[in-house]
Design a protein that fits this description.
single chain, alpha+beta, Subtilisin Inhibitor, 3 helices, 4 strands, globular
């Protein structure tokens, strides 16, 4: 095989590699755009024991645009956008070494599953101590008033 026979194969790979790189960059830009929360938020929120009529149940929250069965979808999406702009993760668990006040905020529990800011999540919430109460309150109105 002569060198000339190999050249067309090499030059054909360069455009394919370039196309693959462009496609990869485009996919990552859609999956997690820098500095914005334009990735569609899709959450399922299950609440029990809140002590408020209509606050317990399973709700869907869709953002960009706000919708779903969540009773305060627009305000909840606004809160999530505000937390994203501050680069805060309200779904992160309380660190194991956190010092928390020993107070009970009531029997309310919640579980949030779905996608936020381009990542899957499965987070549980309670009001079992001061840290968990604060974590819950940070997510209001995504999570309802409780107590």
């Amino acid at each position: 095989m002569s060198r000339k026979a190999c050249r067309p194969a090499r030059t054909a790979l360069v455009p394919l590699a370039s196309l693959a790189a462009v496609a990869s960059l485009a996919a990552s830009a859609v999956a997690a755009p820098a500095g914005t929360d334009s990735v569609r938020t899709r959450l399922t929120i299950t609440v029990s024991g809140s002590g408020h009529a209509g606050a317990d149940g399973v709700f869907r929250l869709l953002c960009t645009p706000a919708g779903g069965s969540h009773p305060s979808a627009r305000a909840a999406c606004g809160r999530l956008d505000a937390l994203a702009r501050k680069d805060l993760d309200p779904f992160a668990p309380v660190p194991r070494d956190a010092l928390c006040t020993m107070q009970f905020g009531g029997p309310a529990t919640a579980r949030v599953t779905g996608t936020w800011r381009g990542r899957s999540l499965d987070a549980s919430f309670s009001r079992s101590d001061g840290c968990e109460i604060s974590r819950w309150n940070t997510l209001r109105p995504v999570l309802p008033e409780a107590g």
